[in-house]
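Design review, sub-item: ligand-bound model
Attendees: FS, YL, KQ
YL presented the inputs for the GLP complex:
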Amino acid sequence: MKIVILKNSDEVAAYGADIFVRFISKKPAAVLGLATGSTPVALYKQLISAYEQNRVSFKAVSTFNLDEYLGIAAEHPQSYRYFMNHQLFNHIDIDKQNTQVPQGDAEDPFAACERYESAIKKKGGIDIQLLGIGRNGHIGFNEPSSSLMSRTRVKTLTRATIDDNARFFSADEYQPHLSLTMGIGTILESKKVVLLATGESKADAVKAMVEGPLTASCPASALQMHQDAVVIVDDAAASKLLDVDFYKHIEMENRKLNERFDR
Ligand code: GLP
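KQ shared the predicted structure:
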């Protein structure tokens, strides 16, 4: 796991976006795994401005989103499909046919999950997966106790996640308690993983993910098993880590190595 600790959420977004821009420049037909939540919004803004400045094109890119609420349609303003269209896809040159989000209103959600897994495989797998993290350590909607081998499936949300996400729904609006989510096994198969976390409210989850034991109680700790996972956090989200200075030192050394070997 590579830990990058930066001053604030703007630096986190810029660092993360730069990884994506460079990746797509090298592989224009990259398969991206994308995430929702408030954390990736700033990164998406950076990608949009990179596109506007002709620094990147998404014409040949395909995307798969991590998750979707079960029981709401794509047009619903709280659906993750709607979020992706409005926060990113509508503002770049991506072909929407190449963007996939699990189908929240599928007649048979279980079959929809299987189709989603097959579609990812058919594309040759995800090249680079963006992740946020829930306060309880969830990734996608893989809540604590999720199997570390899990695949895309229907998942029940914890009370904590429902409460955390209630801010996006108005008081009289139906808030789903179920979701369709890529599994932890699905996420671990991505060739590269980039996880962003900002703010003090994520400090416990970041600590458990990076320095805690590998455990289904903190689904994000499964990333300790990934060969190419980059965790980008601000000082506040890093505030409970034991060895901040060491992680910063490693990052400085990595930067020097990258410059020296032009990586
Ligand atoms: C939701 C999403 C996750 C996201 C998490 C944290 O539950 N399913 O993918 O990482 O929220 O969101 P935020 O970035 O808003 O804290």
